[in-house]
Amino acid sequence: MRAPIGDFDNAWPAPEVLDRLTAPVAAAVRGWAGPVPADQLLYVETDPEKADTAVFVETYGKDLLETSANCVVISAKRGGERTLAAGVVLSSCRLDVNGAARRELGARKVSFAPHETAVSETGMEYGGITPVGLPGDWPLLIDAAVAELPWVLVGSGSRRGKLILPGKALATLPGAEVVEGLGQRI
Question: Where exactly are the transmembrane stretches of this chain (predicted)?
């Protein structure tokens, strides 16, 4: 199957390649429900050595600069209580942690979660964290520009592959909230 974005050798419906996904992502795909059919979640293999954005785009297609998104685990603090959340923004943007994310989470302070926390709490590899399969009780902030994309490339839970799915599918994930201006151009 040909991927709808990027220049990948093959794309497979994610339900057909559950063994290539990390456990939380595979569980989310198995239990997929909503307006977008599970077979519209596509898996593509990628070389982890080519994960740097410039190299990735050069290797897999220049269109991916505007059609791929990063999922960032953040830690929000309010009244001495810590809450983990995630933000999803275009790869060409940075997450507005101290503005939009802080306001949406009603937090006094928001920061990027430490590497170890992100990995242990998600069950995913650092550099491959995806909104698909995050803990269901986490707030999931999706930049409106990502949700509006016909197709968006995100992590697959591992650095060896990516998922391609309609942007609107991200807005239906557990805890998802679409936020205008969550991502700011770099």
Answer: none
- Are residues 172 and 143 in contact, defined by beta-carbon separation less than 8 angstroms? no
Q: Which CATH architecture has domain 12-185?
A: Alpha-Beta Complex (3.90)
Nearest to 118 by CA among 50, 155, 71: 71
Rounded to a whole number, what is the distance in angstroms from the first to the last CA of the chain? Answer: 33
What tokens were used for 177? 């909230």
Rounded-to-integer distance, Cα 115 and Cα 113, Å: 6
| Residue extents of the structural domains in the chain | 12-185
**Alpha helices (H) along the chain:** 23-30, 53-60, 102-105, 115-122, 144-147, 167-170
Per-position pLDDT tens, the chain of length 186: 999 999 998 999 999 999 999 999 999 999 999 899 999 999 999 999 988 778 899 999 999 989 999 999 999 998 889 999 999 999 999 999 999 999 999 999 999 999 999 999 999 999 999 999 999 999 999 999 999 999 999 999 999 999 999 999 999 999 999 999 999 998
Tell me how crowded residue 39 is: count the other CB atoms within 10 A of its CB.
13
What is the Cβ-side half-sphere exposure of residue 115, based on CA atoms within 13 angstroms?
3
Tokens coding 185: 């151009």
Q: Maximum CA pair distance of the chain?
A: 50
